[in-house]
Amino acid sequence: MQHTLYPQSRQEARRAHSPAWPLERALLLVVLLLALVAVAWPALVQPSHYHDFADQRAWGALPHAMDVLSNLPFALWGLAGAGVLVQALRRQAVDRTTAWLAALFFGGLVVTTAVSSMYHWQPDNTGLLWDRGGMVLAFAGLLGLAACQGISARAGVALAAAVLVLGPVSVQVWAVSGNLLPWGVLQFGGMALIVGLACLRPVAAGAGPSHRGLPIRWSLLIALYTLAKVLELGDHQVFEWTGHLVSGHSLKHIVASCAAWPVVAALMAVMKSKAESGSPSRAGSKGAVRLSPTRAA
Which DSSP symbol is given to 59? Predict the structure, then answer.
């Protein structure tokens, strides 16, 4: 009797301790579906005028100056975020998984500054290959944070790892065959995933005390990303509307870098929450032990 019931009881215990498993399975199915679309759908060709940016002005020896220099905010946000992350780790306000994913995101922003500046210095497909490869790091960290907050830490790590593998593959597919579809699926499918994971957040909040993540304002991040894409598509129009002051692509860099703002704000929020929750415990250790039942009541 014990032998027949033991496997069943162990399976029941495993389910009881893995409340996020149905959402993890759904996430896996969505990722597989996106991969199928990237492989099975007709090829998507990059426009021949893709490198023809509106602002071609040079500043001295610096070609395409505004498109190059407008990448600096990526580094500034990346370094600022890394500094806040170090403080959060010292105060034990974030768990290791969240810290690793946030570090991947902030590190990706710094790398993006270098590779995107290199690409815009002399826009061509070779430079664009490195540019997109650098963006994969930030995408991986961001998608991992979304899955970590919406589902589980395990889902966050798995999704980030998948992006780190599939991202370079999609870029290489474009470089070899000219098919841009896998990269488009990674980028836009990834943002669609973030929208879906943000909607699932209230459901996943009951996954247990071990499930933490960062309280990122995903609606703000998605709005910034959407605005950045609109500016990118309206590169020449914005350049004309501003009287050749600034192009849409240059503004796109600045707006896209601000996507780090909700992540940095979330780190600061958890540090503040940690400090506030720690104050009563320190006060109680100084002799207010008898008052604790009254507080509980």
Answer: B
Q: Is 45 helix (H, G, I), strand (E, B) or coil?
A: strand
Q: Which amino acid is at 136?
A: V
Extract the tokens encoding 182. 């896998």
Q: How far apart are CA 109 and CA 254, in angstroms?
A: 12
Question: Mind listing the pLDDT tens digit for each residue in 239-290?
Answer: 999 999 999 999 999 999 999 999 999 999 999 988 887 654 333 434 434 4
H or E segment at 188?
helix 181-204
Least Cα distance to 68 among 126, 16, 131 occurs for 131
- Could you tell me which of 137, 165, 161 has the C-alpha nearest to residue 147? 161
- DSSP track, 125-157: HHHHHHHHHHHHHHHHHHHHHHHHHHT-HHHHH
- Express each pLDDT in 116-142 by its tens digit: 999 999 999 999 999 999 999 999 999
